[in-house]
Amino acid sequence: MSHLNNVASSAQDEPEIISHTKYVDPFIGTGGHGHTFPGATVPFGMVQLSPDTGVEGWDWSSGYHVSDSSVMGFSHTHLQGTGGGDYGDILLMPTVGEIKTEPGSKANPDEGYRSRFEHVNEQADPGYYSVFLEDYKVLAELTATTRVGVHRYTFPESDASHIILDLKHGISDTARETWFQVNGDNEIVGLRRSSGWARDQYIYFVAQFSKPFKSIQGVKGGELINNATKVEGDDVKAVINYDTKLDEEVVVKVAISSVSIDGARKNMEAETQGFDFEAVKRQADLTWNEKLSKIEVEGGDQVQRTIFYTSLYHSMTVPNVFMDVDHQYRGMDHKIHKAEGFTNYTLFSLWDTFRATHPLFTLTSPKENNDFIKSMLAKYEQSGQLPVWELAANETGTMIGFHSAPVIVDAMLKGQTNFDEEKAYEALVAAAEDPRRGLNWFNAEGYIPLEKEANSVSKQVEYAYDMWTVAQVAKRLGKTEDYKKYSNRALNYKLLFNEETGFIRGKDLYGNWVTPFDPMNISLLGAGEYTEGNAWHYNFFAPQDVNGLIELHGGDAGFVAKVDEMFEQEAVNDNHMAHDVTGLIGQYAQGNEPSHHAIYLYNYAGQPSKTQARIRQVMDEMYTAERDGLSGNEDCGQMSAWYVFSAMGFYPVNPANGEYIIGSPIFSKVTIHLDNGNDFVIEAKNNDINNLYIQGATLNGNPIDKSFITHQQIEEGGKITFEMGASKSTWGEAKESRPVSYAITPAEEAELLEVKEQVFRPAITNKSVLFNSTAKVGLKCITPEVKIYYTLDGSTPSASSTEYNEAFTLDQSTMVKAIAINEHGASSKVSEFDFKKAYYNTGEEFPKLTINYEKNASYDAGDNGILNGEYASDNLRDGKWDGVSGQDLEAVVDLGKPKQLHQLSMGFLENTSSWLFLPQKITFYVSKDGKEFTEVSQQTVEMPNDHPVICVTRFSAEVNGTYQYVKVVAEPFKKLPSWHLGAGNTPWMFTDELVIE
């Protein structure tokens, strides 16, 4: 149902539709680090037809950045505000004059078919984009339907007008299969199959031209092919040639499909008739106006309205339809499926969008959100897992958590379910029990040891939240034991809270806090304890248990002081200069998602006025109507959804409990038109830039002092009215006025809460498990009042094993296993220490290490770093790794004299998200004289097709004989694979210790 407002025209008694699209500026976010695209799309459309000014680099994730002054063409798929690039499929570029088949460079556009342009000659509206191409004097205009991109090119008079069709072109991906075929005098069909962030993406297309071709040339390997009718390869292009009159228009329609040419053709026939560009443009505007009218604002200024409606617009550009009009689509198994009773979607940037974007959909687009969930469940059925970060039927594995869960659970708890709840629960449990990505440690140990999984703290707190959402469905479905299990897991974030520092921080396998600890230190590139952030950014993430978090900080006063301290820190992101940690107020980072809820936490501790002040500050300082108007990546709508909610006056701190925490509305009136036919109105009296504090409130005329509202209250319709003022008030401060958030409520503790005695594993006091002649082994445990038991024969220790009382001596390689048991009989898990008697450099002349690879200053373990008797950890930054890139690793060890050898081994770190790959081949040699070497082992590694678990792999070789020299040669993979974000770049090998036994 449309909620477009009608008003009487002054000229005649006919209704006039009020335009909301006039407030939308798609250029917002195309500067700075917003990463948005300005081109034409419709709500959740499969086509995003937009200009490409650059294809490589972080700020060109969407293909466009305001810093550019030339454009290479207009492609049909784009990512909205992501932190990585892909798409840019099926590029068209009108040109005049000499035929050029390469795009050329920004530094010299004349090298190729690029054209210079001026930003003053651009226009962007919802569903429309235009730009004047200075070099060709061509006006390029774009519009779109859901599955069809429509171009209109207005040419000058010329007998050498062209349209380049570039199927090689893509944004940070690699074309692997391309072809086109000419059908008649005005149609071209074809395929672009590529590998990038989406490892295997298919885009079939049908392109129809309003003007018959004069001629067509193909391009393959850079060579022109005259009179081409079909060209195949991995770099195929076409040149469509025309004679044009002055201001002659050529309209091109391009329909796309992930399924087939036939699917693309059906899409075109269903969505466009003829070549009426203006009709498609008008329909796009009407479609957008209807969607934007779901929320109507009154008051505020022009800038605030522009930011608001642009934010609402951005929030509805993703996810994207991913099926043809006949409901066929390519699934996660890359088989063709048919969506029965729902629309299939793709592009789920869930680490970002679970927080506010999907909760916003439950208000503005509940039908689409239900189909988003059905799409997730279909992906689960096809692949065995719910999407983590899915793109074009490819699971990228990007970011952390299993955040399909809160999206599904939010809809279920709000009663917006038109799907199989038991099937949904099956999928949720599968996600919760998946052993990958550190969940094996989280579920078995209660916490993720920092040395076993990168970003362990961030994963810990986000998994705890996701577990809470699973628990809510278990409760809903009467699964009592599961409800108990997952409710307790939801409290696991507490296991990493350190009372001494007041931070949630990293802990190792033996229970030791990571040192040194700096809460300002930002983790990057898959290393460290935090994901795109630091301890400040993750210290307040327990939306399922905010009251429990408050208690950890000593109560309301201590918690408020800690949040205050976050805002009062120095606003720097330390020397790493992390791209994503932006929009800083102290250590609050609006430019990245982990901070987004934190301002609203004041309400839980009885200080809503502090929320109100900070919310206004962020909206005023971090959002503008300029091209660089976003303080960080748009991230598929999350940055904008935050603003939409906050501008209306509330925000879903817990995205799945149906509560919205009240902030400070900026408009005098907001009306939400709900799909159930009800309206919910937010009214703010005496509201302006100075009157930002709530003095009092009524709901449907009845006074309320609660600093939150519920989704149910909104769905029922009505009006909430706020009295605003310039001074802080006591509204919402009382205990009974605050929102309450417990993972396990006090009333449920007796029945649900599991109190477990935590006994940590014993650790060794030895610096290393490698030794020259003898090793004196010491054992210790951080848990007080325990007894330690150990074995030396490889068996599992128990209370019947040898009790540890004092250090013991080893004189040969031995596997030491140990456990700790407290006075109540609670036992730790088993510790294993593989002591090896080996030859390594202790500062003497021999063993002598010679290397033939060039050291890297940043990753240099020292002169004898790979022969110093110490293993490196799983942390690439621990200073014990030698990093090698673009070259073979060769190391030779002279033992000084012949030695009896038994085994050789060498360790390599695999952390593919940080570009660290195992060697593709490693060979061990031995020699008696240092001249003639005998190969004893050669091992090869297959290039992975996914990001495996971060771990150290030790390659070993058996040796039986007396030798003086040992040599190892490791050959790296030459290029990062096509599925990797850094595809085509040079990977790294990280090696630690060459062990000679």
TrEMBL record:
BP GO annotations: carbohydrate metabolic process; glycoprotein catabolic process
What Pfam families does the record tag this protein with?
CHB_HEX_C_1, Glyco_hydro_92, Glyco_hydro_92N
Q: Which residues form the GH29D-like beta-sandwich domain?
A: 771-831
Q: Which UniProt keywords apply?
A: Calcium, Hydrolase
GO molecular function: any one?
peptide-N4-(N-acetyl-beta-glucosaminyl)asparagine amidase activity
Cofactor names from the entry are: Ca(2+)
Glycosyl hydrolase family 92 N-terminal domain span: 23-257
Q: Which residues form the Glycosyl hydrolase family domain?
A: 263-725
- Record InterPro entries: 6-hairpin_glycosidase_sf, Galactose-bd-like_sf, GH-type_carb-bd, GH29D-like_dom, GH92_a_mannosidase_put, GH92_N, Glyco_hydro_92, PNGase
Among the entry's GO cellular component annotations, what is one? Answer: cytosol
Going by the entry's taxonomy, the superkingdom of the source organism is recorded as Bacteria
Q: List the Gene3D superfamilies hit by this protein, alphabetically.
A: 2.70.98.10, alpha-1,2-mannosidase (1.20.1050.60), alpha-1,2-mannosidases domains (1.20.1610.10), Galactose-binding domain-like (2.60.120.260), GH92 mannosidase domain (3.30.2080.10)
Subunit relationships: Monomer.
Protein name, per record: Glycoside hydrolase family 92 protein
State the species of origin: Flammeovirga aprica JL-4
Q: What is the lineage of its organism?
A: Bacteria, Pseudomonadati, Bacteroidota, Cytophagia, Cytophagales
